[in-house]
């Protein structure tokens, strides 16, 4: 055998590969020499295979751990690190522990590094998934290929291979695309919003309608990542969320977008940890006041109710309701509710009191600072001014020959932050034009709710969302942006009017549970 480097019987060698009749002077034909080389290379590769598998497995394991770590809520990282360290220590102290640990690790690495080119069942793309990726690739070719591309192997071409263009992908258990990272050619206009939007639309259509997607553009690497998003949880009732004083849960968002989660009890009594959009108010806040805009029926009044119910835990609330639907009347006469005003006259007198109260608090805080004492308790107690539909109130006030109540918001909006006075306003898009310049300038926490276009989101939040709209927009769904931070998807907790008989009873009861006791001195109106 040693004198016969060609391992196959001649009968199995294709005719074109049979040894040449004109043998090389060395005694081996070129074809034989090539075959010998191939055999040697195969032998070397075979010998290196365990090392290749282990290296690939280690790489996959590290990548999987890194992904889990990145998606883990920050408050869980400490306990996880501690538990891992404790397990490693216990393993070290156990007889044969390190040896067993090393064997288990090698086994895991080898399992992770196994060849996955076969079927979907072992983690790689199956036939159907490969076909799906190829179809998606072909759909991208007309958009991303360059006619007369001078390069020998362009990234996108009609006979091209998706493996060069798609650097990462994942499928859901039911075979739908869950994630895709693709490279785009340098000539693609990633700086032009219209080009981006066209590509996003195409990808969205090809990845399957009926879901929401997030697009992340990495201009530096020339890559675009698409991720299919889980729907946000609807119908979480408003409740005592686990937050610090000065923090308000505006709603829930994506896990990757929030630095922490809060435990919540869902409608059926099930407990879950959800990532909240937390709004911080008070002297250190950079977004001390809030403005929410939306379509009719999108849930802006519910958002104000949810804020009021959370605010009443640590502070006092004044509601100015221009909607005229008595949707805050359930708060009237409750402890810490300063008032619920529904008429222009009532709104004006209440807001005049707020102006005086802001000035009183500022003077008291100033005096305390000068004498080196702490500010008195009544200066530190949070006061919330919640104004629903200010545009309607302004219109009614003007028709009665009175001033627009919004003018009186100037003082609390400008100076309220230092003395814990917070203003939150909600209106419909149609009323946005009637909002005063002061309101626009001082409400840096922004929310937009309802079935809105990216342009409407940009007009309210200053930036368009990186996510596509949901197939159906439930009430309370929208986007939030705090200051110059990112735009988050948002689902506001359910906080119906408890006297609304059409609202589900469990949600109405959840609201009633949060209501303070009836006030001993109703309305504290003596302070006005
Ligand atoms: N976050 C939410 N979760 C569940 N249901 C909601 C939510 N927000 C609003 N809804 C429901 O949607 C309906 C309209 O809500 P809401 O009154 O808050 O809307 P709006 O934007 O103030 O509109 P309008 O000014 O026309 O009343 C109500 O039945 C309410 O219970």
Low-confidence stretches: 1-26, 117-121
Total number of helices: 14
Bound molecules: adenosine-5'-triphosphate
CATH architecture of the largest domain: 3-Layer(aba) Sandwich
Query: Taking strands numbered 1, 2, ... along the chain, how are they ordered across the largest sheet?
Result: 11-10-12-13-9-14-15-16
Structural class: alpha/beta
- Considering DSSP H and I runs of 4 or more, what fraction of the residues is helical? 25-40%
- Secondary structure tally: strands: 16
How many separate structural domains?
2
Strand content bin: 15-25%
State the end-to-end distance.
Answer: 108 Å
Binding site for ATP: 294-301
GO molecular function: ATP binding; DNA binding
Protein name: FtsK domain-containing protein
Domain FtsK: 274-458
Write a brief caption for the model.
The protein has 528 residues and is α/β, with parallel strands linked by helices.
Report on the structure:
With 528 residues, the chain is of the alpha/beta class. It folds into 2 domains: 125-229, no CATH class; 247-527, Rossmann fold (3-Layer(aba) Sandwich). It is built from 14 helices and 16 strands. It has helices at 30-71, 74-93, 97-112, 127-144, 162-165, 193-207, 300-311, 344-370, 377-380, 390-399, 410-415, 437-442, 454-461, 505-514, and strands at 166-171, 177-183, 212-218, 223-229, 247-252, 262-265, 271-274, 276-280, 290-294, 316-321, 337-341, 383-388, 421-428, 445-449, 477-482, 488-491. An 8-stranded mixed β-sheet has the order 11-10-12-13-9-14-15-16, with helices on both faces. Helix 1 packs across helix 3 (97-112) and helix 2 crosses helix 3 (97-112). Bound molecules: adenosine-5'-triphosphate. Residues 235, 294, 296-302, 323, 475-476, 492-494, 496, 503 line the site of adenosine-5'-triphosphate.
């Amino acid at each position: 055998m040693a004198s016969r480097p060609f391992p196959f019987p001649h009968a199995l060698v294709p005719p074109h590969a049979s040894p040449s009749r004109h043998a090389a002077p060395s005694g081996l034909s070129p074809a034989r020499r090539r075959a010998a080389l191939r055999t040697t290379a195969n032998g070397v590769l075979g010998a290196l295979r365990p090392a290749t598998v282990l290296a690939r497995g280690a790489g996959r394991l590290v990548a999987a751990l890194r992904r889990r770590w990145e998606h883990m809520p920050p408050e869980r990282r400490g306990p996880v690190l501690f538990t891992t360290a404790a397990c490693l220590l216990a393993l070290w102290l156990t007889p044969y522990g390190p040896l067993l640990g090393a064997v288990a690790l090698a086994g895991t690495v080898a399992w992770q590094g196994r060849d996955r080119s076969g079927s979907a069942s072992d983690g790689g793309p199956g036939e159907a998934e490969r076909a799906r990726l190829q179809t998606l690739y072909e759909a991208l070719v007309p958009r991303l290929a360059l006619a007369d591309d001078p390069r020998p192997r362009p990234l996108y071409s009609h006979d091209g291979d998706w493996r060069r263009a798609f650097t990462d992908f994942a499928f859901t258990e039911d075979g739908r695309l869950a994630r895709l990272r693709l490279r785009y050619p340098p000539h693609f206009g990633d700086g032009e919003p219209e080009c981006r939007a066209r590509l996003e639309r195409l990808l969205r259509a090809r990845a399957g309608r009926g879901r929401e997607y997030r697009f992340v553009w990495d201009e530096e690497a020339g890559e675009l990542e698409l991720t299919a998003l889980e729907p946000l949880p609807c119908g979480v009732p408003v409740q005592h969320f686990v937050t610090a004083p000065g923090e308000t849960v505006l709603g829930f968002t994506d896990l990757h977008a929030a630095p922490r989660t809060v435990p919540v009890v869902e409608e059926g009594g099930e407990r879950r940890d959800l990532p909240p959009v937390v709004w911080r108010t008070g002297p250190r806040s950079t977004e001390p006041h809030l403005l929410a805009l939306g379509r009719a029926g999108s849930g802006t009044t519910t958002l104000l109710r949810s804020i009021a119910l959370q605010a009443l835990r640590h502070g006092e609330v004044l509601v100015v309701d221009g909607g005229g639907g008595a949707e805050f009347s359930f708060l009237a006469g409750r402890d810490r509710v300063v008032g619920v005003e529904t008429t222009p006259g009532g709104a004006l007198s209440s807001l005049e009191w707020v102006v005086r109260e802001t000035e009183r608090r500022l003077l008291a805080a100033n005096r305390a600072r000068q004498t080196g004492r702490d500010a008195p308790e009544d200066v530190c107690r949070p006061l919330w001014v919640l104004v629903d539909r200010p545009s309607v109130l302004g219109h009614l006030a003007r028709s009665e020959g009175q001033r627009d109540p919004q003018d009186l918001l100037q003082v609390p909006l400008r100076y309220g932050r230092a003395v814990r006075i917070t203003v939150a306003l909600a209106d419909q898009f149609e009323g946005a034009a009637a909002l005063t310049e002061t309101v626009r300038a001082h409400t840096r926490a922004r929310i937009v709710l309802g079935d809105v276009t990216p342009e409407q989101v940009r007009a309210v939040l200053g930036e368009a969302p990186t996510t596509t709209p949901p197939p159906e927009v439930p009430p309370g769904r929208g986007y939030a942006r705090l200051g110059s931070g990112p735009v988050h998807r948002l689902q506001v907790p359910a906080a119906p009017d408890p006297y609304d008989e059409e609202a589900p009873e469990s949600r109405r009861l959840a609201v009633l549970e949060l209501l303070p006791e009836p006030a001993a001195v109703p309305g504290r109106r003596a302070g006005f």
